[in-house]
Amino acid sequence: MLTLAAMYYHPSLEVARAQWAVAEGGDKTAAERPNPVLTAQPGYSLSPSSGPSPWTPTVSLDIPIETMGKRRYRMDQARYLSDSARLGIITAAWQVRSNLRRSLIDFAGARQRESLLKQELALHDRIVQSLEQRLEAGAVASSEVGLVRIARERTQLDWLDARRLSSEALARVADSIGVTVAALQGLNLPDQISPSLSVEELMSANLRRQALLGRADLLSALSDYAASQAALQLEIARQYPDIHLGPSYNYDQNNQKIFLGITMDLPVLNQNQGPIAEAEARRTQAAARFNELQTKVINEIDGAVMSYRATEQQLSSLDTLLVAQRKQTESVAAQVNAGAADPLDLLNAQLELSVGELARLDGHLRLEQALGAIEDALQRPAAALKPSLVEQSHSAQAMKENHP
Asked: CB neighbours of 213 closer than 8 A, spacing ≥ 6?
């Protein structure tokens, strides 16, 4: 729902649509044929022997005729530029979604971090209170209490910083949607991180091929290259001059005269070689930009997958550590209930567990960010990859059955 709202409100999409409208106007301009030119020249003879009428009017018409398919090349260039602008809307829409997803991850992470730090701060308060009571009884040194107080103040600073990050993340959520922060007041924004998928569900040779063939920015770069090719063909065609037909009519002393003129430029001093060289250089530049973007996309996919795998392994280790800390906390709690351990030991175990939960939260956030990087590299939501993977699995199974 937030993505739909961003698609409706975010101004960058309106800019992309306006650019497409301008490019579509270029399509109409390129398809237009040149208008003929009508020239009327009224004349008057001052000679006394001008005949029955001293008026000698002349009417001429200039009809331009484009040669060598110039109009077709011009239309091709405009059509490819229009396709590039249309694909720019898709690129802008994906960027809006990516920014919204990133800001929601930051917001949810800040909210959870704030909650965990609040619990940790409460544990610090209980530990400080317990040690102060023991300090009054002379059971501990004041330096030990001072260290615990410093740790408590650090936790409070971290909690206040988490509150600040939560407010900033909410502002980024509003900005990524294209509304004010006040418009989000009262909405139940997600404060939980969405479940992740395994890396095997995200990557395959088929998906990489789909990314290289379906990313909007790559298709836009291909359209730009095709437009540059059409522009080069247009400049080559301009080596050959257009023809101007010039029929005219002249009335001279009751004599009606009709002329038919043909006009064209003579390619003597230049054969349009300069514009051809510029168009060829722009085509080479468009090809280089496409190759650069294609290499960047491949590296983005590989880097995102490697980062996701490493983060997934790290999160698995954090989960194992957190399970061990929970068992340790339960063991200490049982010892306290049995009178075999000090309640302060339980508070310290709970504090260590809180620190472990914070570390796991950071790992989970990094995993979500890595998943977002994979989505950005493929320009497809992770949930939308599942049907393709199912179809691919079924196709592979059918191939195995037909060709054992």
From this structure: none
Q: Where are the beta strands (DSSP E) in 168-313?
A: 243-252, 255-264
251-274 tens-digit pLDDT:
877 778 888 889 888 888 888 999
The pLDDT assigned to 192 comes to 60
Q: What is the CA radius of gyration of the chain?
A: 37
Say whether pTM exceeds 0.90: no
pLDDT tens digits for 323-355? 999 999 999 889 888 888 788 888 888 889 999
Give the start-to-end residue ranges of the domains of the chain: 197-215+272-394
Contact 117, 109 (CB under 8 A): no
Contacts of 127 (CB under 8 A, 6+ apart): 148, 152, 344, 347, 348, 351
The helix (H) or strand (E) run that includes residue 63 is strand 58-65
Q: Please say whether the beta carbons of 124 and 388 come within 8 A.
A: no
Note every long-range contact of 187-191, with CB atoms under 8 Å and residues 24 or more positions apart, other chains counting: 189/2, 189/104, 189/107, 189/108, 190/104, 190/108, 191/107, 191/108, 191/111, 191/112
- From first CA to last CA, the distance across the chain in angstroms is 47
